[in-house]
Design goal:
- The protein is of the alpha/beta class.
- It is built from 9 helices and 10 strands.
- The strands form 2 sheets. Strands 3-2-1-4-8-6-9-7 form an 8-stranded mixed sheet, sandwiched between helices.
- Helix 6 packs antiparallel against helix 7 and helix 7 runs antiparallel to helix 8.
- The longest helix is centred in the last third of the chain and has 39 residues.
- The termini are far apart.
Length: about 325
């Protein structure tokens, strides 16, 4: 680990949160990548003072690069929103690079995250089944029996790395969506019960009701029958939950982000195929709980709307 050199370019995506941004950047600074792509969204026109915050944060990040590094600046003049900024930022990096490690401004990685990503990007470079390498493991129960990682149907994009060959397949218009529904791709991945629920979430991304980029990435991966790599231990912390300025994580955090260092050299799993045992535990312990939360609050909102309609009708 002491002799490790990070040659894989990092794409660091940030916006207007100096506290979390600099906490994450301290980890990047410690890793000393040879190439760094700084991706920043532009300020929102209706937010007083945001232009100054965004511009100052860009300068602060740039000034903190105190090692030998090729820095590329990808700064938007006007606000693009999470969906377009994430998509364009990753696309712009991978138009120039074959691989990249992607870190957002609320994802704090352990030092081992970087060599883990770099090694597995090389190991699975030609394996078309693998769409990305994840640094996140939410199970926290030693579900990985052998090896340093598993191949899974359910990798996370909280701290991840990918190849140009995979990202080139990304279609944020989801032009393939009707075929995915007809072929039952989502239900094959998530099972009949949760697949039906997740289809509804993906439908919202397809229609634009949900302004996000990652559901389209997930749908693309399922459409092509792809998987991801998940580490034996969780390697990242997500510090973006429960913040007023969060885009998609304003609710309380239901996950355990306790981290644990991986040992090197990395050990290949005994069978380099999807680990069904791990995936079944993930469905039971993570997916089931997530959909219970989503649909509980969905029912609450539905009943409140009905109550408001009834009350407003009586007042006429």
């Amino acid at each position: 680990m002491s002799e490790f050199t990070l040659t894989t370019p990092i794409t660091f995506i940030f916006f207007n949160r100096p506290d979390t941004t600099m906490q994450v950047f301290a980890c990047i600074r410690e890793a000393k990548p040879k190439k760094l792509y700084l991706v920043s969204d532009g300020p929102r026109a209706n937010r007083n003072g945001e232009k100054e915050i965004v511009e100052q944060l860009r300068k602060t990040v740039e000034d903190a690069v105190d090692w030998e590094c090729e820095v590329h600046r990808d700064y938007a003049d006007a606000n693009m929103g999470c969906h377009k900024r994430m998509r364009s930022g990753i696309s712009n990096t991978l138009a120039k690079e074959e691989t990249t490690i992607i870190i957002e401004d609320d994802i704090v990685p352990l030092p081992c995250f970087f060599p883990y990503c770099q090694e597995l990007l090389s190991r699975y470079r030609e394996d078309e089944r693998i769409f990305f390498i994840s640094g996140n493991n939410l199970l926290q129960d030693d579900s990985v029996r052998d090896g340093s990682y598993v191949i899974s149907r359910y990798p996370s994009i909280w701290g991840w790395a990918t190849w140009r060959r995979a990202w080139e397949k990304y279609d944020d218009s989801m032009a393939f969506w009707e075929k995915v529904k007809k072929d039952g791709c989502v239900r094959r991945y998530y099972g009949e019960r949760f697949g039906a629920m997740f289809e509804k979430q993906l439908e919202c991304a397809y229609t634009g009701e949900r302004d996000t980029w990652d559901y389209q990435w997930e749908a693309t991966r399922m459409y092509y029958g792809g998987y991801g790599v998940t580490p034996k231990y969780n390697l990242i912390d997500n510090i973006g939950f429960n913040r007023e300025d969060a885009t998609h994580t304003q609710g309380g955090c239901m996950y355990d982000f306790a981290r644990k260092e991986l040992h090197f050299p990395l050990v290949r799993p005994a069978q380099e195929d999807v680990d069904d045992r791990y995936d079944k535990r993930y469905i039971r312990k993570i997916v089931a709980r997530e959909f219970e939360r989503l649909y509980f609050w969905g029912k609450v909102r539905y009943r409140l709307r009905k109550l408001r309609t009834r009350i407003s009708g009586k007042g006429r």
